[in-house]
Amino acid sequence: MDKALYIAMTGASATLQAQGTLSHNLANADTVGFKEVLANTESYPVRGRGYASRVAAMHVDQGFDDSVGAQRVTGNPLDVSLHPDRWLAVQAPDGREAYTRAGNLSLTPNGQLVTAGGRPVLDQRGNPIALPPHQALEIGNDGTISIVPLGQGADTLAEVGRLRVVEAPRERLQRGLDGLMRNGDPAQPLPQAAGTVLTTGVLEDSNVDAAGALVQMIQLQRQFEMQVKVIQRGDDNAQAANTLLRLGG
Fold first, then answer.
1. I need a labelling partner for 165 at 20 to 30 A (CA). Which of 148, 192, 214, 223 fits?
2. 150 and 107 fall within a common domain
3. pTM beyond cutoff 0.85
């Protein structure tokens, strides 16, 4: 009977973890550039002495859904939507390079280009981007940043930098606890993406299907309740068996 209890317990634990993943996705259903976190369960044999007859459930992190979210036109020159497999390089809290698809950029009072989360955006050399005073700004489809300097005519564009946009398939990236992506193999730096890499004046919305996530949440809740009932019934059966043994003794 203890085998059934442990198996049901591991299943309930995996279900709770899956619910946590879904809650995280729902909380970011309106976050620009957010990629849905994927989770699943798989069976694994319980090793140890005796016959290998027990199989438990284990929560598995399957990475993220890299499908492109809906495109929303804003007209803001600091809003960029990255093309598939293209990621914007930013400076992580530890000072290292990380990646995001959140293209709602802004300028600080001192001219530093940052994400909505306040992370400095990096140029193609890996340095934080700081722009001089200007009266107009334009980000090209290849990531180049041009400005019209103060006091100059509207036809005077000066190129002042280029966004570091890397080409990275899903299997090369790992999500950190801060929501930023990292290179899964630091020994092989991600290359600067060539050609057209983004669209200006457009934002990519989260690719989370909120309605589908709510349905999954209900299914997981029912699944968890069933697993708890199995644990309760197993405990009841064990107590009844112990009572019979005492009476028989």
1. 148
2. yes
3. no
